[in-house]
Design goal:
This protein is of the alpha+beta class and 364 residues long. The protein is 22% helix and 35% strand. The protein has helices spanning 37-48, 126-137, 150-153, 220-225, 258-274, 335-363; strands at 8-9, 16-20, 25-27, 34-35, 74-78, 85-89, 105-109, 118-119, 157-185, 190-213, 235-236, 246-248, 282-311, 314-321, 327-329.
Length: 364
C-alpha cells in the first residue's frame, strides 16, 4: 500500500500548512493564520479547477494571392551582404540595401510573397524625415560630430515594412493574493493587523490589429518603439503606393509571428485586469488563464523611414514612423567629449565644495 501525504499551501503566504492538534485547526507556522479544514479544502479544490490549458489559436490566412499579371510591376532585390530582400517598382533599376546600405542585386520578378491586404501610405516625405533626425540629434552634446554632418542625413530611405495584424477577443480569468495592513498604537504597544484576501477577476478584452513585423531584418524593439499607427488611414493595397519607395519582403510569416502576438496580448490583458485590483496594500498575481476567440490575422505594409550609419565599426539604425513622425534610435557616445564634460563637472563640484568649506569655516 502506497502512503500519500496531503499538503495544503497557505493562501496568505504560500507556506506549507500543518494540523494543530491543540487548536483542532490547520495552522500556518509562518504567518500563524488558522483555517478550518473544510474551508481550506474548498479553496484548494477551487485553485485546482483554475488551471485549464490556455487556448490561443489563430486563423493565420492573411494576405491574398497575386492575380495574373498583377505583380509584374514589381522587382525583387537581394542584398549579398546582409541577405535582406526588398521589393521595388519596375522603374527602380538599382538601389542600396536599407538595412546595411550596400548595393543590392536584381534577382528578377517578384515571387513567393502574398499580396498585402492593406497599406498605410507615407504621409511624411524625406524632408520631414531629415527634420526628424535633426531634432533627434539636437542638444546632445556628447554625440560624435559625424552624426551631425548633413551628408549622413541624405542616407535616409523610405521603406514599407511588412506587418501581421492580429485581431482577437481575449477571454481571461485571474486570481490575486492581496492584503490590507492597518497599524495603530496605544500607550504601551504598536499593533499591526494584516488581512488577507483572494481576489478574482474575469472578463473579455477585445484586441484589434496587434502589429508584429514580419521581417527578421528589422529589429523588433525598433519597430515597436515607433508605434502606434493610425489604421483609419489605411487603404486597400495597390502597387501604385510603392512608387518611389522600397518594400521589405517578409521572411517571417503569420504562423511564425504567433508567439510574439500572444506575448503582447497576454501582457496587455494581464495589465488591464491588474489595474482593476485597487484599495489593497499589496497585490500578488497567483494565477491567470487566457482563451482567444475570433483570432485572425491580416497582412499590411506600414511606412518607415530608415537610416543606417556606421561609426567606429559599429552600426547604428534609426527609424521614423512615416505616418506620425515618431523618431527613435540609439546614439553613440563621444568618449572624448564625455571626458571633457566630466573634467568640467569635477571642477564645478570642487569649486562648490570649496565654497561650502569656506562658509563653514567662516561661521565656526
Amino acid at each position: 500500500m502506497e502512503n500519500t501525504i496531503l499538503e495544503y499551501k497557505c493562501p496568505c503566504c504560500g507556506g506549507a500548512i500543518s494540523f494543530d492538534a491543540k487548536l483542532q485547526k490547520l495552522k500556518c507556522p509562518y504567518c500563524d493564520t488558522e483555517f478550518e479544514a473544510e474551508t481550506l479544502k474548498s479553496y484548494d479544490e477551487e485553485l485546482k479547477n483554475d488551471a485549464p490549458e490556455e487556448e490561443m489559436t489563430w486563423d493565420t490566412h492573411a494576405g491574398t494571392e497575386w492575380q495574373e499579371g498583377e505583380d509584374g510591376e514589381l522587382n525583387a532585390y537581394i542584398c549579398n551582404s546582409c541577405g535582406g530582400q526588398i521589393v521595388a517598382d519596375a522603374n527602380t533599376a538599382a538601389t542600396h540595401c536599407p538595412f546595411c546600405d550596400n548595393p543590392v542585386v536584381l534577382t528578377g520578378r517578384l515571387s513567393g510573397m502574398l499580396k498585402p491586404d492593406y497599406v498605410i501610405p507615407f504621409k511624411l516625405d524625406k524632408e520631414a524625415a531629415k527634420a526628424g533626425l535633426r531634432n533627434h540629434l539636437n542638444g546632445k552634446k556628447l554625440l560624435p560630430k559625424v552624426f551631425k554632418d548633413e551628408n549622413h542625413i541624405d542616407e535616409i530611405k523610405g521603406i514599407y515594412v511588412p506587418f501581421w495584424l492580429f485581431d482577437a477577443d481575449a477571454e481571461a480569468n485571474f486570481r490575486y493574493r492581496a492584503t490590507r495592513v492597518h497599524s495603530w498604537a496605544d500607550s504601551n504597544y504598536m499593533y499591526t493587523e494584516t488581512r488577507h484576501y483572494s481576489v478574482t477577476r474575469g472578463g473579455t478584452v477585445g484586441f484589434e490589429r496587434v502589429p508584429v513585423d514580419g521581417s527578421s531584418s528589422m529589429a523588433d524593439d525598433l519597430m515597436e518603439s515607433i508605434e502606434p499607427y493610425d489604421f483609419s488611414q489605411a487603404v486597400d493595397f495597390q502597387t501604385a503606393y510603392l512608387a518611389g519607395y522600397l518594400a521589405d519582403k517578409y521572411d517571417v510569416d503569420a504562423e511564425q509571428s504567433i508567439d510574439r502576438a500572444n506575448a503582447r496580448i497576454k501582457q496587455s490583458t494581464a495589465d488591464a485586469f491588474a489595474s482593476t485590483v485597487l484599495g489593497y496594500t499589496s497585490v500578488t498575481p497567483q494565477y491567470g488563464n487566457i482563451k482567444l476567440n475570433n483570432g485572425q490575422a491580416k497582412y499590411a505594409l506600414y511606412p518607415v523611414w530608415i537610416l543606417n550609419t556606421t561609426w567606429r565599426d559599429q552600426k547604428y539604425t534609426f527609424a521614423m514612423n512615416g505616418q506620425t513622425g515618431k523618431f527613435v534610435g540609439d546614439l553613440p557616445l563621444d568618449k572624448g567629449a564625455l571626458g571633457r564634460w566630466l573634467v568640467g563637472l569635477t571642477g564645478i563640484l570642487g569649486a562648490a565644495a570649496f565654497g561650502i568649506l569656506t562658509l563653514v569655516h567662516y561661521f565656526m
